[in-house]
Every structure is written in structure tokens, then in C-alpha cells.
Amino acid sequence: MQDSHLDQARTVTEDGQLSILNAEKKESGSYKCEASNHLGQDSAFTQLNVVELPQFITKPPSQLQVSTVQNITVRCQATGDPQPKVTWVKENGELPVGRSKASVDGTLKIWNPKVEDSGRYTCVASSNNIFAKAISTMKLTVKKAGKIEYEWLQSSTKRSSLLVFWYILSKKKKKPTFVTNYFLFLFSGKASINILLF
Length: 198
What we know:
- With about 200 residues, the protein is mainly beta.
- It contains no helices and 16 strands.
- Strand 14 and strand 15 (about 160-170) form a beta hairpin.
């Protein structure tokens, strides 16, 4: 590579040593070193490959709390040159067997999570022939879902009007609590059913 291809502001040559500050991908290539005196000359070539270290463009949240009836989807994406490979590992254990999938695009999915799935999950971005890795860790907390009991009465005067009551039954909380996500199952007459909290 000729000197004209180098950014002189970031290039230092001293005592036969070439230094490039903040090297860029475009400076990859073949470099030739020449030495000469009154007796003759000699030369040598070296190949320089400038890589981009893995870095995240989408990180998982540092903490995630879900209930046992919520499927989990967490994205983790990284860039670099060469393109890094993204993998997921669980601290002191393995990903839920048969209920999880770590896709090549860095997306982690866990179906039917269990309380024992709680723990620290680490997303790792690494590239071949590069020792440096990008790491991001997420603390997952899975809590057992309570039960929501729906009870309604059909009015004897207005058959279309329904009175809906809801409350959450659990060991820790027995007071009536507002529920934002719920389903209404419409049956004729009086009915009482239990469904899981989403």
C-alpha cells in the first residue's frame, strides 16, 4: 500500500516502525517495507486486516419480570466486522430444555416459563478470530400467576346487561384489585369461572 492511501494525520513512521492511530476498515491491505543502502535493497510484505469489535445495537433489558403465563421474547442484536455471532447462556444452568429457543438473529424465546427459570441470562456477541466479546446480562424473575375469578349475573329485566366482579386470589393479596387485561366469557344465566392472570 502506498503512502498516498494513508491518512497522514493518523500515521507515524519512526525507526522503521509504522503506527496507525485509530485504524479503520479501509486501511486493511498489503503493506510493503523497503530497506536500502549503498550496497543494495530489500523488501518485505505484511497483510493488515482491520476488524470492527462486536458492539450491541439492541440490548436486552437489565431486569425483566413476568408471570408464569406470559411467553418471553427478548431481542439482542450486535454489529461488527466480521459479523458477530450472538448466543445466550444462563448463569449456573442451561436454557429451559424444550421450552426455549435462541435464534441466529439473537432473539431469545421462552415458552411456558416456570419460577425455576428465574436467574441471570447473558447475551454474548463474538466474532471468529477476535478475542474481544460484547456481553449484556439480564436478570429474569418469573412469578407464579394468581387466579382471577370472574362472576357475573344476568339482569332479569335487561338480559344484555352484565354485572362483572373481579378480584385476585393469592396468598399475599386478597383485597379487590383492578385488572387491566381480562376476558369476558358470555354465558346465559349465572356462571362463575376461574381463569389465569395474563
